[in-house]
Amino acid sequence: MVKRTSQILRNLRKLMKNLAFVPETLHAYIVPGFDSHHNEYLSPRDKRRDYITGFTGSSGYAVITENQACLWTDGRYFLQAVQEMDENWTLMKEGTAESVSYTEWIGKNLPAGARIGADPWLVTHSSWENLENDVNKYGQELVAVDKNLVDAIWEDRPGVDVYPIQPLEIYYTGRTWKSKVREVIQKIKAEKAACYIVTTLDDIAWLLNLRGSDIPYNPLFFSFVVVCPDGRLHLFVDSDKVTVAVRQHLHLEPGSFVEIDIRESGAEGIALDVKVELHAYEELKDFIHSMVGTTDQGQFWFSPFCSQSIVSVIPKSRRLCKTSPITLMKNVKNPVELQGILESHIRDGAALCEFFSWLEQTVDSSEVDELTAVEKSREFRSSYENFVGLSFSTIASSGPNGAFVHYKPKEETCRKLSREEMFLLDSGAHYKDGTTDVTRTVHLGVPTDFQRECYTRVLKGHIAIRNTVCPVKTKGNQLDCLARIHLWNVGLDYNHGTGHGVGHYLNVHEDPIGIHRRPYPEDPGLDVGMVISNEPGYYQEGGFGIRIENLVHVVAASTNYNCGKFVTFEDLTFVPHQRKLIDPGLLTSDEVSYIDSYHTLCREKVGALLRSLGKTEALKWLIRETEPLG
Amino acid sequence: MVKRTSQILRNLRKLMKNLAFVPETLHAYIVPGFDSHHNEYLSPRDKRRDYITGFTGSSGYAVITENQACLWTDGRYFLQAVQEMDENWTLMKEGTAESVSYTEWIGKNLPAGARIGADPWLVTHSSWENLENDVNKYGQELVAVDKNLVDAIWEDRPGVDVYPIQPLEIYYTGRTWKSKVREVIQKIKAEKAACYIVTTLDDIAWLLNLRGSDIPYNPLFFSFVVVCPDGRLHLFVDSDKVTVAVRQHLHLEPGSFVEIDIRESGAEGIALDVKVELHAYEELKDFIHSMVGTTDQGQFWFSPFCSQSIVSVIPKSRRLCKTSPITLMKNVKNPVELQGILESHIRDGAALCEFFSWLEQTVDSSEVDELTAVEKSREFRSSYENFVGLSFSTIASSGPNGAFVHYKPKEETCRKLSREEMFLLDSGAHYKDGTTDVTRTVHLGVPTDFQRECYTRVLKGHIAIRNTVCPVKTKGNQLDCLARIHLWNVGLDYNHGTGHGVGHYLNVHEDPIGIHRRPYPEDPGLDVGMVISNEPGYYQEGGFGIRIENLVHVVAASTNYNCGKFVTFEDLTFVPHQRKLIDPGLLTSDEVSYIDSYHTLCREKVGALLRSLGKTEALKWLIRETEPLG
Fold it and tell me: TM spans, by residue (chains A, B) (predicted)?
């Protein structure tokens, strides 16, 4: 549906010249698709780029000049952008041979001396620096516009919802928030820094053992944290979200119960006391500004993803821009987190066995389409213990829809599920003890030889990753080709990464670890306790899509020789791979053994749960689907 | 041997305060180990860092302050640096947990406001920008010191040798220099640039079909080139090196024979005439400076490896810093170059068969040591057609010496070759039709089971790379793990890259292509016609070293399906892999077939040459060593 934007653009262009809003007339205004925390998913009131362009894709920049309005996005969204934007907007295609970046376009289309405005809250510090460099190359100037111009013209902008924050008990987290904060303080001290400013919301949620509901699919709450080496932790958050339970959890109530972390009983246990001080969410910048004035020792540490607006109040000589100390702590799961993740996967697997067993029985007799599949898979999951909600928007795609990697079923595109087509389900949920993300591809009728060959080659890549033994700290990028070589050998490939980090009842995409074609400069490399997805695929345009995804965790490998420390993966996901899609003739004996032993684990772990819950049909389905191949 | 540097440092520190040499007193002076062209190997008069420190390793930076003198280098050279430097120098170890970079050290050890000097000829533009950023972070200033202070105090500095430049005939190059220049001009025009400034010596040698002898092991000559879109090519070179043959080749003589490039017979053939203008080597900077003043259109294009000194005369708004347009042209070999490379490898393989056959017969009866092996392998090579010289310093290592990856035999460390130890020979040569680089590891007695297992696993990695099928433009970094997984599986690894680009009778290390653990941001990805090495290894400290290296070239792959264009590799090197070191029980049937067919090719190609030359002993050795495994 096309959005009419003429009036919106007229209003915006007026503000670009209004000195009550901008320090000087702007020649261009950049509207990025980000919020102040660089979140992957945006709350409705942060969808500024969607509001002015009409375009609702997950990736894209808008640039408005006096006479032009352009949107940059990538190949996934070309069609959608054309469908959603009116004639005011020009689509600028990224990643094509002729494509120019938006800074290059601005540089070449506006004169030297032009002033390019942007809201520094919506641009990370590292992006701002690059942007400024690019703009300066053309003799132009990047202007920080503190009042967001889109907000100023957005009449029906959604309000702020107040969702209460929830403490997550030590039974699930395995570690007190104070112990985590103390470890962060050690890292701050090692850097001789004045503080660490936490702006990434899953860092805050993980650090404080709190969860929220401010963002779709991510259990986060809007906030900032400043950790000081003296033990003070400043939490900037809307006080309406801070319930009595949260106050007790953070030891803000007199006589609050103090959790003891048994792992801290030694020297660390008698460490520095950590005290939380609450501030309003909006006060962070003033707080940092005044802290700069009152402390004269140490640098202010922030991550490259920190908003430029915050960084701008710190003098250059006192900036320490460096990967968050919390990122790696969060990536490496502790034994309690891992146990919870494993248990949540067994429940999740049981729900999926129910779903696939139900689907097989229902597909002939009644109308099952992609949207029904989305709803039904949610329904099965939601009956299990600790279920909180979905961890991302379910991808359920039948036949040719499966060839769109990021397909989401809608009324207009929704296909009926049938015995004639392949069906791909990529779905996951948050449980209080873990986050899941699993993809299975099935054929409810008779697959073609080509479909079986493709499926089996994808499976070979999936097994190759699972069984990799590699030196600790190997970056995921270095392993990516192992998932592809069996497809490459016959001239096939897939156009997405092979794996991403996954949080513990947190974001389903947890950077910077994973298995990607492109290097991730911040990737710390694989280490014991990390959780990532293993999801190669193959997509036949107009035909079908195949993806096979398990979550795996990194474990120590035992090897014949020991030239350093080696690691390998173990599966966390336990859902059978459809046997009829596997061509055993293409598998090595090691691969057959792996599948058979994986299926035995599915029976043992998920089968036991289904049996104990009396889910006989699903159990029967599971037993049949896990018969040995060999 | 320790070098005494007290007087040298006193002299240098005087100059750091002498306003005839520096614009203001310097607090520190940086001496990098590079020359004005960022060459890998330095001519003796460019070894400034060696002169002031005594340290002769290939990698390292020296920093001199009023009271301190420090050298930064990496783990390969810690021992050597300690042995070569006197008490004036502090070794700063790179790549250790406590290591600080030299800019960090300067930042923390000198006050804000300190002036840090360096010769901008010896620092590339991209390094200079990073250096300036780093220095500015600490409130310090980077000062370009135009007169090199080391040169000013270096009394016995070697003079300039005048080696004549040699034209390389079209029979070898397959393409006229004018045709190459015209292609560069097209690229300059596509960028709307005013010119391209060529500072990389192998770019110049390749572009003009000329070779020189100014640098050890690299057939290059000191020069700069400026290519202008109007067809003028300005060559800055010592006129004493420009012989009549070179003048004729460059069509500078009246009535010079004009080469016709048959591939240009079409539209391209009636293109722009290209004219060379000669200038003195030292005139480049003035030339650029005056060109900036006389042209007002277009940017000055240079590569990130261009010296800062040159870039400094170009106003920022007119700089275009971007990968050399010549790099990719040079990386992708034309059919004539490839044919020459293949033929030179057959001769090189014959020489190595002679060497190994000789070694086997001689090892018991007379004293053969590593230095003899170096000399003898050179001797065999030098008797073959088109031999010019070695392409790098031969690595010949016996037993435990093999565990040092970059080992070079010297009198002090030289071991006798024997039937008790493994022997590794990594060597190569320039022929007028191609450059070779090959490593073979042999055991002249009875290898242990562990040695055979390690050798076979290295070989499996070598075969995996050779037989990879992957999408065109796959970056070498993405394939690196294929060479390692068979070692990783048992807890072993090797601590170097797997492959590097190789020139056509040019540098044996030709960036930016190759197969590396770390990503090379400039790597254009694999394409048909590229030549790289394939050289996994394994090193057992105190025991032995194994490396197996062939050069391979990228060819189009034929695949069952065609989801895009796929490529694979073919071997260029034809020297047998020692059969007694191979454990066939560890090989798959595909791997055995590969070895047998590779050995058949060795017999066919190298065997035929040995037969025609009547080299009966070497031929007998080759036939025996290429018996089928299967």
Answer: none
d(CA B141, CA B77): 30
CATH number of the domain that A223 lies in?
3.40.350.10
Best mutation target among A452, A480, A486, A488 (most B Cβ atoms within 10 Å) is A488
B103 by DSSP, 3-state: which? helix
Are A492 and B561 an interchain contact pair (Cβ–Cβ within 8 Å)? Answer: yes
B517: nearest CA in chain A? A478
Within 13 Å and on the Cβ side, how many CA atoms surround A229? Answer: 16
> Are the beta carbons of A461 and A485 closer than 8 angstroms?
yes
Does residue B427 lie within any of the structural domains?
Answer: yes
If asked whether residues B125 and B204 sit together in one domain, one would say no
Query: Which of B312, B330, B348 is where one domain is finished?
Result: B330
CB-closest option in A139, A491, A563 to B491:
A563
**Mean pLDDT to the nearest integer, A519-534:** 94
Residues of B in contact with A488 (CB under 8 A): 468-471, 566
Check B488 against A480: CB less than 8 A apart: no
Least CA distance to A474: which residue of chain B?
B517
Cβ <8 Å between A519 and B517: no
Q: Which residues of B touch A561 (CB under 8 A)?
A: 490-492
Chosen from B460, B484, B488 to mutate, greatest number of chain A CBs within 10 A: B488
Closest to B481 (Cβ–Cβ): which among A112, A481, A492?
A481
> pLDDT tens for residues B444-456?
999 999 999 999 9
CB atoms B490 and A561 under 8 Å: yes
Q: Is A280 part of a structural domain of the chain?
A: yes
Q: Say whether B485 and A482 touch across the interface (CB within 8 A).
A: yes
Residue A366 and residue A496 share a domain: yes
A473-512 tens-digit pLDDT:
999 999 999 999 999 999 999 989 999 999 999 999 999 9
Residues B227, B305 share a domain: yes
Across the A:B interface, residue pairs with CB atoms under 8 Å apart total 90
Collapsed DSSP state (helix, strand, coil) of residue A200: coil
Give the contacts of A265 (CB within 8 A, at least 6 positions apart): none
What is the reported pLDDT for A136?
Answer: 87
Within this chain, do residues A427 and A564 fall inside the same structural domain, yes or no? yes
d(CA A373, CA A363): 11
Q: In the sheet where B141-144 sits, what is the strand order?
A: B90-93, B69-73, B61-65, B28-32, B115-118, B141-144
**Residues in chain A whose Cβ is within 8 Å of chain B:** 112, 137-139, 316-317, 468-471, 474, 477-482, 484-485, 488-493, 517, 519, 557, 559-564, 566
Asked if residue B160 belongs to a domain, the reply is no
Q: Looking at beta carbons, which residues of chain A come within 8 Å of B562?
A: 491
Q: CA end-to-end span of chain A, whole Å?
A: 53
Locate B201 and state its tokens.
């010596």
Question: Tens of pLDDT along B140-178?
Answer: 999 999 999 999 999 999 998 899 999 999 999 999 999
Domain assignment of residue B336, given as a range: 332-625
Judged by CB atoms closer than 8 Å, whether chains meet at B561 and A482 is answered as no
Q: Report the C-alpha gap between B75 and B93 in whole angstroms.
A: 7
For residue A554, list its beta bridge partners.
Answer: A569
Residue A340 within a domain? yes
Q: Based on the domain organization, do A337 and A458 belong to the same domain?
A: yes
Same domain, B176 and B248: yes
Which of the listed residues A127, A153, A179 is the one where a domain comes to its end? A153
Q: How many domains does chain A have?
A: 3
Q: Any residues with CB less than 8 A from the CB of A593 and at least 6 apart, and which?
A: A630
Name the token pair of A382.
């939601």
